[in-house]
Design a protein that fits this description.
Order of helices and strands: HHHHHEEEEHEEHHEHHEHHEHHEEHHEEH
Radius of gyration: 73 Å
Structural class: alpha+beta
Oligomer: single chain
Distance between the termini: 148 Å
Low-confidence stretches: 1-17, 102-117
Length: about 625
């Protein structure tokens, strides 16, 4: 037999249409022998007839045992193909191992007689096989060999289906033996016997092992473990006695029959119980079916009554719904008319609410403004009163200084005239001195002394005059600051007063509103007026727009509005003279009061006479208002 690794590699099947080499004959023969043994190829047709599975085209199913052996030997001796020789050699080997010829009867009859003797033979149970002569090697003082997994795969590939393979080890390492464990059932026994016969067929069975124990070669030996192996003193005997027992095939079959009989009895009893249960269920089902039929009849009767009642109720409901529908239509028409009236009333109410809300907001705003104006007015009254008193006092002082300065200026002018006169006299005296007049010389000396005194007096007056000019400028600055405070105090006062504050260069929005109402709807008019007013305010503050021209009036140059300016012409043509005059007025005021900055400035204004008010008029107006309020409080 080949070694384990060599046998595993011999499982490939070559193609049938080509011949094989001489080195492959043994492998090819073994493969067909294995197929015959496993029953893949059918040979036996009846108890006495056989067929050749490899010559099916010549004769079919008409060989007896002896004739088939003769046929196979004839093919081997006469054919030239190695394939046919290997196939028929495998057939002869299979027939000799598994069948015997006796009076042209199948070998199975003899096999049955021998099996009766084997029924009492003792085997190790569970069924065990022994494999001997496993190749080992010595490494590091111990023997090592192939694992049980590879041996198990090898046996599975041969069709023996072992459960486990246990290599046996001792103190020297791997012993070269292994125990093969099969299933406990009869199929396991059949696999074990096939395992033994396979080794015996190749002359590597138990007898062969003991006969060649000294020179066994490299092939494996195997057999089924029996009572002598169980009782042996070898390494596999010790292993078998640990977890196995000795039983004959008859004992195992008897035990299985007992178990089967018990199981069959239990199943029979259980089936009987189930049958009784089924009969009981069937009886109950019949009773239930009869009861159900009665219930269904009653149900059908109830359904008919119910359907009739439903139809009657539905008819009544339809009549009632139709009446309700007509009433609903009448009520719907009445409600629609009332809804339209309510919608009109709601719209009118919303409009009134909106007007009331806007009026309420306006009143609240005016109230807040009046409260703030009252508070500011109180503060402004106190500030303005104080300012008015300070301004009055400063004005009186300034008036006194101006009178004093005028007097000193007159004295200075008189002194300058006197000095000029005396200088002229000195010049005259110088001419007279040239003519040698001694009296004139004395007079000239006296005039020069007077002239020198007058010039010194003039210098003193000049210094005094400069001091008075500085004081006057300071007084003017203080007066301007007082005027600014006066303007700030009068900002929040109503324009209905004679004296107040006017924002010079500010556009009047009323002409824009009137023009927008003429051109647009009432909803858009206010928005358009605000847009136009904002646009022209932007134009007024634009330093690059200069709609003025310079003319000469009575020898002096004067800047006037250029009526030919494109923007002003478009404004006049599109929106009328009222808007045009409003823009021109703002331009003139900016040109007069703030030509460099081009932004709106406040100014104290006499609205009664339409001119710039003096500080005196502003102070007098504030004092008058203060006295009136004081009288009201008292």
């Amino acid at each position: 037999m080949l070694s384990l690794n060599g046998t595993l590699k011999m499982q490939r099947i070559t193609k049938e249409d080509t011949d094989i080499a001489e080195s492959e004959v043994e492998e090819y023969q073994y493969r067909h022998y294995r197929n015959l043994r496993k029953g893949y190829v059918k040979v036996k047709l009846s108890d006495i007839t056989f067929k050749c599975p490899f010559c099916s085209g010549k004769r079919k199913g008409d060989y007896i045992y002896k004739e088939l052996i003769e046929h196979a030997k004839g093919v081997i001796s006469h054919t030239n193909t190695l394939k046919q020789k290997a196939k028929h050699s495998a057939l002869i080997k299979y027939l000799e191992n598994y069948y015997e010829e006796k009076d042209s009867q199948p070998a199975e009859r003899t096999k049955q007689h021998s099996s009766c003797d084997n029924d009492r033979e003792l085997f190790v149970w569970p069924w065990m096989g022994i494999v001997a002569n496993i190749a080992v090697q010595k490494k590091d003082g111990r023997y090592v060999g192939e694992s049980g997994t590879k041996l198990k795969e090898y046996l599975i590939n041969k069709g023996f289906n072992p459960l486990r393979v246990h290599p046996l080890w001792n103190y020297l390492g791997h012993s070269g033996f292994a125990i093969v464990e099969f299933n406990k059932c009869m199929s396991g026994f059949s696999n074990a016997m096939m395992f033994e016969k396979d080794f015996e067929a190749t002359h590597h069975g138990k007898k062969d092992w003991y006969a060649k124990i000294k020179y066994p070669g490299k092939e494996l030996y195997g057999w089924v473990a029996r009572d002598d192996d169980y009782n042996s003193r070898g390494i596999f005997g010790d292993y078998l006695r640990k977890g196995t027992d000795l039983k004959s095939l008859f004992d195992v079959q008897t035990e299985e029959e007992r178990i089967t009989s018990t199981l069959l009895s239990n199943l029979t009893n259980e089936i009987e119980v189930k049958n009784q249960h089924c009969k009981e269920i069937k009886r109950k089902c019949n009773e239930t079916s009869i009861s159900l039929d009665n219930v269904m009849k009653e149900k059908d009767k109830m359904n008919r009554n119910f359907n009739e009642e439903i139809r009657r109720m539905q008819q009544e409901a339809r009549d009632r719904i139709e009446n309700i529908y007509h009433d609903h239509e009448k009520i719907k028409l009445r409600l629609e008319s009332e809804c339209r009236e309510l919608e009109l009333l709601g719209q009118e109410l919303e409009e009134r609410e909106a007007q009331n809300e806007s009026e309420r907001k306006r009143i609240l705003d005016e109230k807040r403004k009046n409260e703030r104006a009252t508070m500011e007015q109180k503060k402004a009254d106190a500030n303005v009163l104080k300012l008015a008193e300070d301004q009055k006092r400063q004005k009186e002082q300034l008036h006194k200084r101006i009178i004093e300065l005028e007097k000193k200026l007159d004295a200075k002018q008189a002194l300058e005239l006197e000095i000029e006169r005396m200088r002229g006299a000195v010049q005259v005296m110088k001419h007279m001195k040239e003519y040698g007049d001694p009296d004139a010389q004395k007079k000239m000396e006296g005039i020069e002394r007077d002239l020198k005194e007058k010039e010194e007096e003039l210098d003193i007056l000049e210094e005094l005059n400069q001091m008075l000019i500085v004081k006057e400028r300071k007084s003017n600055d203080e007066l301007q600051e007082a005027r600014k405070e006066l303007i700030n105090g009068l900002k929040d006062m109503s324009n209905r007063a004679f004296i107040g504050v006017k924002r010079m260069g500010e556009l009047d929005s009323k002409p824009f509103q009137n023009a927008s109402r003429r051109r647009y709807s009432s909803e858009e008019a206010d928005c358009k007026a605000v847009e136009m007013c904002s646009l022209w305010e932007k134009y007024l503050t634009d330093p690059f727009w200069h709609p003025f021209k310079v003319i000469t009036v009575e020898g002096s140059h004067k800047g006037v509005i250029n009526e030919e300016d494109e923007k002003l012409k478009d404004l006049k043509n599109n929106y009328g003279d009222e808007v045009y005059q409003s823009v021109v007025t703002a331009l003139k005021e900016l040109h007069e009061y703030n030509p460099s900055g081009r932004y709106v400035i406040p100014e104290l204004w006499n609205f009664k006479e339409g001119r710039k008010a003096t500080s005196k008029e502003g102070v007098a107006f504030i004092l008058k208002q203060w006295r009136l309020r004081k009288r009201k409080k008292n």
